[in-house]
């Protein structure tokens, strides 16, 4: 009877496989859904095949007839399934209604579900009764487990709840370990007879898992979902054997595997990789739940070694020879005592059974063996990877830090037993050597090696010092002070040898002149010129070329990579009105590396078709004179395309004669400052992005040149294409290249799957972006790549961004500038290079918010990972798939989930920056207290988008913290422990849906290094910080505080006493508490460094407030709102000598008439009046001819509905450039008079924008 059952089941399995292989490849067919359903049948039949064997005793009475009946019953079920398969196959092949087929199939499966579940109970009962000596066919068991694991993987779709996915994933990982462990042992010639107890145990848990997963998948009448879930949650704990006989089998098998000496074949590599992956998964579990800090560090090093070995197998399988295999065996044997995850409690038992020193010693030996192999086979997989950007800047910041640490009391105590002074002296010497070879590291391999060794040892010094300060015990020969000093001496000797060599001098000279003496050929990617859009820009440029000054002038076109600068210049260059106007024209591509002689030849060949032979023998000076001779007395147009520095112009200028005949030079660049200001005929043309219609037209021209109508397949994807390309011509070109290689019927699916990430990875785009990045100074590279730390399409507040740069150590203060000013210079430089886009300009001369194009964003993400600057994690799978490298210095999780933080423990020891973002900040609470015990070296911690419950008071452990951003939600308060962080520079509290003010603890005065303190509330700006007011006389000053928003002020108290605690503050926003019918005098002139002040009144009633202000004379920007002061109080403001920006908002002043009298606004260049009840704004008749706003450039009037009259003095204001008016319907005639008078005075450029 059993033999017929086996035959029947085997035949049914073959039919089932044929059915799966025969799915039609039609669009919208639910192949995955069908396969997932049928795979559960396959798993059951594989299990049933074993129990159809006569050798297997079913858990019934020993009566033969009863056993035969059950075999017959199992065979009958297999027959019914087998008979259903042809019917399913016929329906699948003939039906064009796929979900109707699915419905029929589910109905048939439903008829089997009850019996299958009952049979799983029978199989489990039989398995549990087997003795450890029972025969289990290993190959059959492996096939069964492969099918079961496939079910579990397919069971984790996105539609499942997170806790369900975690349960199934845990079960899957542990079953996979058992499967891979058995295959690993078999690979090492361990016989089946030696694995008996292990196979019996594994089979039992696999059957249990198969039954439960089947119930959980179909769960119709087989117990409550909660009962099934509870059973699944318990099962992983039962997978690893605890029975002595089974554990003994495992250990004996490991020993037997050590004695094996056979060579690895190609098919073995997959088994080894799978086993390493399972080891890593289970070691991860130990790390996540481990609490012993001494051994945790070594376990993490052990994990990294295993991961590197796995990568060698994956990337360099031929390198996996006997040397790699030796530590593999050692790991299994030594590690089997307490590392091997055959028992989750094994590590605790081992620590109890052995002396801690012995445990650590065994681990150290394992790690040394692994490191030796990795160093030889894969040296780039160094266990201590450091960022490749701005190495010299890092060494400088480290030296400054070492001086600060050694001079502080806490640092001196922590480092008292270590020769830090000697390390500092040696590092100063190495730094001077770095200075000598800076710029050469990319030119010479030997110099690059020295550079990397110096920077690498600097990062290890930092790690060691910071670990000692936090009290972490480091037990590693490679991370001791003495070993580092020895290494520094070796590096110094090698560096001195290179620096003293003659060839270094030649290299320095070569690098210094490389921009003038390197050929340009092949230096720039070529983009096919298809001209679309820019009609207005073209007309304006052509007008500037043909009219205006008679002197030689430059027209500058700037924009980000791929934005169409060259295309626009070419369009102008070839226009008929230009070709007919200029006598001589020349086009010259400069690029970032150029040879002046080649540029002169390029110009000459354009202006003269035939050159005499002797010209080609001329030197550089003679060629420059020859160009000048050909251009003399001619009106000429020269295009200098892709200029990277002003030296290019300086080198060529002498060849361009000025005959005052209207000659012009067009210059295209990514940088704004490459053209001398005195030569510009117009402000640089900053290219805009293409409009949606222009984007569409460009794509059509690239795919169907010369055709007006696009095929319907292209029209169908128009909207997706426009949104994806975001107006950048280069992206459109790249997308067209992708689509041109595809069948047009697949365009829709392709575009839906495409993103800027795909586009930016193409060769053409990557080359363009790489070129721009390569030319950045080292000091800017890290700042630019840091944009990859945030979610895509994010708008960045510049103050906050610069604070992050400062905290990260990318920006250092100078003797003349604060670090914030240096950071602002860096940002403006990136903007001028067209890498960063201004999204919100400040009122004058500045940027409030910025962003980068998606194309550049993806470049930043990829390059930052490549340079080991930071690692972005976009989804949980990046953790589970081990795509995150060990020990990332900066970790940025874009969509934070609960499961991230369990796994975060693995990567945390070396993390210096942790930025967490979430899309559902108000719905999830995180408990991160356990993390803070591990990430003790972190310096930047951004929690402003994730809810904390409770707020971790353990934050006081993070003594290196410089930047902390918190989400204020619910009843969470700022604990006093936050203010015990000696290095904290930036503290940001961001209100969520719970809007409230925050009382600061008394310990706030301990934050001596605090530079940026901010409360963010996107809805209501009135919420503020309440500083402790008692005992101010004995409290310390916050002398470094540069920016504070928002401070609560109560004029009934001594405001000056509080404000004097911030003697060097430059930017301040305050909320003032006032009461009606009380006279206030607000004195703020003690703030002698204040430049920007925003004051708002907390509203208690509708009455006017009686107050006077005494402002510091240093103020450059002033914003007032809600004070309801009479206009007569403007005198205190109008005479501020340095005031440049004035904003009067939301009832700041009240009254229908503002008659200006004695007040003057000598330097005000930006004025905004918004939400005021003013009707008449005039100048006193006594001072009618006075220009109250001699420097006013921009006037903004917003929601002043009653305003009818604007002062006549504005009619004669020569500096006025633009007036923006919104929702002020009654002042139109006054504006027209101003514009007419301005035109009569010759100011035709005044713009008046009314909306």
From TrEMBL:
Q: Which UniProt keywords apply?
A: ATP-binding, Coiled coil, Cytoplasm, Hypersensitive response, Leucine-rich repeat, Nucleotide-binding, Plant defense, Repeat
Q: Which Pfam families match?
A: LRR_14, NB-ARC, NB-LRR, Rx_N, WHD_DRP
Annotated membrane topology is: Peripheral membrane protein
Q: Disease resistance protein winged helix domain location, by residue?
A: 790-859
Q: Where is the NB-ARC domain?
A: 535-705
Indicate the segments forming the Late blight resistance protein R1A-like N-terminal domain, all copies: 115-317
A cellular component annotation (GO) from this entry: membrane
Instruction: Provide the primary localization.
Output: cytoplasm
Query: Which residues belong to any copy of the Disease resistance N-terminal domain?
Result: 394-470
Q: Which GO terms describe its biological process?
A: defense response to virus; plant-type hypersensitive response
Q: Entry's InterPro entries? A: Apaf_helical, Disease_R_plants, LRR_dom_sf, LRR_R13L4/SHOC2-like, NB-ARC, P-loop_NTPase, R1A-like_N, RX-like_CC
Its annotated compartments are:
Cytoplasm; Membrane
GO molecular function terms listed in the Swiss-Prot or TrEMBL record:
ADP binding; ATP binding
Give the Disease resistance R13L4/SHOC-2-like LRR domain ranges: 911-1198
Please state which protein family the record places this protein in: Belongs to the disease resistance NB-LRR family.
This chain's function reads: Confers resistance to late blight (Phytophthora infestans) races carrying the avirulence gene Avr1. Resistance proteins guard the plant against pathogens that contain an appropriate avirulence protein via an indirect interaction with this avirulence protein. That triggers a defense system including the hypersensitive response, which restricts the pathogen growth.
Q: What protein am I looking at?
A: Late blight resistance protein homolog R1A-3
Q: Which gene encodes it?
A: LOC113689411
């Amino acid at each position: 009877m059993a033999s017929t059952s086996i035959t029947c089941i085997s035949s049914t399995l073959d039919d089932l496989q044929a059915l799966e292989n025969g799915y039609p490849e039609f669009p919208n067919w639910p192949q995955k859904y069908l396969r997932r359903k049928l795979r559960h049948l396959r798993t059951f039949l594989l299990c049933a095949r074993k129990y159809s064997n006569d050798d297997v005793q079913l858990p019934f009475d020993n009566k033969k007839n009863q056993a035969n009946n059950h075999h017959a019953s199992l065979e009958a079920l297999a027959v019914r399934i087998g008979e259903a398969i042809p019917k399913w196959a016929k329906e699948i092949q003939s039906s064009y209604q796929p979900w109707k087929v699915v419905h029929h199939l589910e109905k048939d499966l439903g008829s089997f579900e009850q019996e299958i579940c009952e049979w799983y109970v029978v199989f489990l009962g039989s398995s549990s009764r087997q003795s450890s000596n029972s025969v289990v066919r290993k190959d059959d068991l492996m096939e069964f487990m492969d099918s079961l694991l496939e079910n579990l993987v397919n069971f984790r779709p996105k539609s499942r709840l997170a806790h369900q996915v975690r349960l199934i994933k845990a079960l899957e990982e542990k079953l996979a370990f058992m499967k891979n462990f058995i295959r690993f042992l078999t690979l090492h010639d361990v016989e089946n007879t030696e694995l008996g107890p292990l196979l019996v145990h594994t089979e039992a848990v696999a059957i249990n898992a198969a039954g439960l997963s089947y119930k959980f998948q179909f769960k119709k009448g087989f117990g409550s979902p909660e009962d099934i879930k509870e059973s699944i949650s318990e099962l992983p704990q039962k997978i690893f054997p605890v029975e002595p006989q089974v554990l003994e089998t495992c250990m004996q098998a490991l020993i037997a595997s050590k004695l094996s000496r056979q060579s690895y074949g190609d098919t073995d590599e997959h088994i080894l990789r799978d086993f390493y992956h399972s080891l890593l998964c289970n070691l991860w579990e130990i790390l996540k739940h481990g609490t012993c800090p001494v051994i945790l560090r070594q376990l993490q090093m052990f994990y990294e070694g295993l991961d590197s070995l796995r990568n060698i197998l994956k990337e360099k399988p031929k390198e996996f020879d006997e040397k790699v295999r030796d530590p593999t065996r050692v790991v299994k044997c030594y590690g089997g005592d307490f590392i091997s995850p055959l028992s989750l409690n094994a590590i605790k038992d081992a620590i109890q059974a052995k002396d801690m020193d012995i445990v650590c010693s065994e681990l150290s030996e394992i790690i040394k063996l692994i490191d030796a192999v990795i160093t030889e086979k894969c040296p780039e997989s160094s266990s201590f990877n450091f960022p490749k950007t701005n190495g010299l800047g890092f060494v400088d910041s480290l030296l400054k830090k070492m001086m600060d640490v050694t001079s502080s009391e806490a640092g001196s105590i922590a480092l008292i037993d270590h020769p830090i002074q000697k390390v500092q002296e040696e590092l100063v010497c190495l730094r001077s050597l770095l200075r000598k070879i800076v710029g050469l590291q990319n030119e010479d391999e030997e110099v690059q090696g020295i550079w990397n060794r110096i920077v690498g040892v600097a990062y290890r010094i930092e790690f060691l010092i910071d670990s000692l300060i936090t009290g972490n015990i480091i037990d590693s020969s490679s991370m001791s002070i003495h070993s580092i000093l020895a290494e520094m001496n070796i590096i110094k000797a090698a560096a001195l040898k290179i620096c003293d060599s003659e060839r270094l001098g030649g290299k320095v000279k070569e690098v210094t002149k490389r921009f003038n003496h390197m050929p340009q050929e092949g230096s720039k990617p070529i983009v096919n010129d298809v001209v679309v859009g820019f009609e207005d820009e073209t007309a304006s440029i052509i007008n500037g070329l043909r009219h205006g000054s008679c002197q030689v002038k430059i027209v500058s076109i700037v924009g980000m990579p791929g934005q169409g600068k060259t295309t626009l210049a070419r369009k102008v260059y070839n226009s008929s009105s230009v070709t007919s106007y200029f006598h001589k024209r020349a086009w010259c591509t400069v690029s970032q590396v150029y040879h002046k002689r080649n540029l002169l030849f390029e110009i000459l060949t354009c202006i003269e078709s035939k050159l005499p032979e002797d010209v080609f023998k001329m030197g550089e000076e003679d060629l420059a004179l020859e160009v000048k001779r050909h251009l003399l007395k001619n009106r000429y147009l020269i295009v200098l395309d892709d200029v990277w520095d002003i030296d290019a112009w300086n080198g060529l200028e002498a060849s361009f004669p000025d005959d005052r005949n209207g000659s012009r030079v067009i210059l295209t660049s990514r940088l704004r400052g490459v053209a001398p200001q005195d030569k510009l005929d117009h402000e640089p043309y900053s290219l805009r992005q293409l409009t949606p219609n222009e984007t569409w037209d460009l794509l059509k021209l690239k795919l169907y040149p010369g055709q007006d109508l696009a095929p319907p397949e292209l029209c169908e994807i128009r909207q997706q294409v426009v949104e994806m390309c975001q107006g950048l011509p280069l992206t459109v070109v790249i997308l067209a290249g992708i689509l041109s290689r595809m069948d047009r019927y697949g365009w829709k699916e392709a575009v839906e799957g495409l993103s800027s990430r795909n586009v930016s990875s193409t060769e053409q785009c990557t080359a363009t972006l790489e070129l721009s990045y390569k030319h950045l100074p080292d000091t800017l590279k890290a700042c630019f790549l840091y944009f990859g730390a945030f979610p895509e399409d994010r708008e960045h507040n510049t103050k906050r961004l610069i604070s992050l740069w400062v905290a990260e150590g990318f920006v250092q203060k100078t003797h003349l500038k604060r670090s914030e000013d240096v950071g602002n210079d860096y940002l403006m430089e990136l903007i001028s290079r067209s890498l960063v886009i201004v999204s919100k300009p400040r009122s004058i001369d500045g940027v409030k918010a910025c962003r980068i194009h998606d194309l550049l964003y993806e470049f930043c993400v990829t390059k930052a990972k490549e340079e080991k600057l930071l690692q972005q994690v976009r989804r949980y799978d990046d953790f589970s798939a081990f795509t995150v490298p060990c020990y990332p210095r900066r970790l940025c999780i874009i969509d934070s989930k609960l499961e991230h933080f369990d796994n975060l423990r693995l990567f945390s020891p070396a993390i210096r920056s942790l930025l967490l973002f979430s899309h559902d900040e108000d719905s999830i609470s995180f408990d991160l207290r356990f993390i803070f015990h591990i990430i003790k070296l972190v310096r930047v911690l951004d929690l402003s988008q994730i809810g904390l419950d409770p707020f971790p008071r353990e934050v006081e452990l993070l003594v290196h913290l410089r930047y902390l951003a918190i989400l204020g939600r619910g009843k969470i308060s700022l604990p006093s422990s936050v203010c015990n962080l000696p290095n904290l520079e930036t503290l940001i509290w961001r209100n969520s849906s719970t809007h409230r003010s925050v009382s600061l603890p008394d310990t706030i005065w301990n934050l001596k290094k605090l530079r940026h303190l901010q409360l963010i509330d996107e809805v209501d700006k009135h919420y503020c910080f309440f500083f402790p007011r008692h005992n101010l006389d004995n409290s310390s000053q916050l002398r470094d505080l540069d920016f504070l928003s928002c401070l609560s002020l109560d004029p009934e108290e001594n405001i000056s006493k509080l404000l004097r605690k911030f003697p060097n503050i430059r930017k301040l926003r305050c909320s003032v508490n006032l009461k009606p019918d009380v006279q206030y005098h607000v004195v703020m002139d003690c703030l002698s460094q204040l430049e920007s002040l925003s004051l708002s009144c907390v509203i208690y009633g509708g009455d006017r407030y009686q107050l006077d202000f005494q402002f510091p004379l240093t103020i450059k920007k002033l914003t007032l709102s809600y004070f309801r002061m009479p206009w007569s109080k403007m005198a205190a403001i109008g005479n501020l000598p340095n005031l440049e920006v004035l904003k009067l908002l939301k009832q700041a002043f009240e009254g229908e008439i503002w008659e200006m009298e004695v007040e003057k606004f000598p330097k005000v260049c930006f004025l905004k009046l918004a939400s005021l009840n003013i009707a008449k704004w005039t100048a006193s008749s006594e001072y009618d001819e006075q220009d109250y706003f001699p420097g006013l450039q921009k006037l903004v009037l917003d929601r002043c509905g009653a305003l009818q009259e604007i002062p006549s003095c504005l009619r004669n204001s020569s500096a006025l450039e633009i007036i923006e008016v919104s929702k002020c319907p009654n002042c139109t005639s006054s504006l027209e008079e101003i514009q007419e008078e301005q035109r009569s005075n010759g100011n035709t450029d005044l713009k008046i924008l009314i909306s």
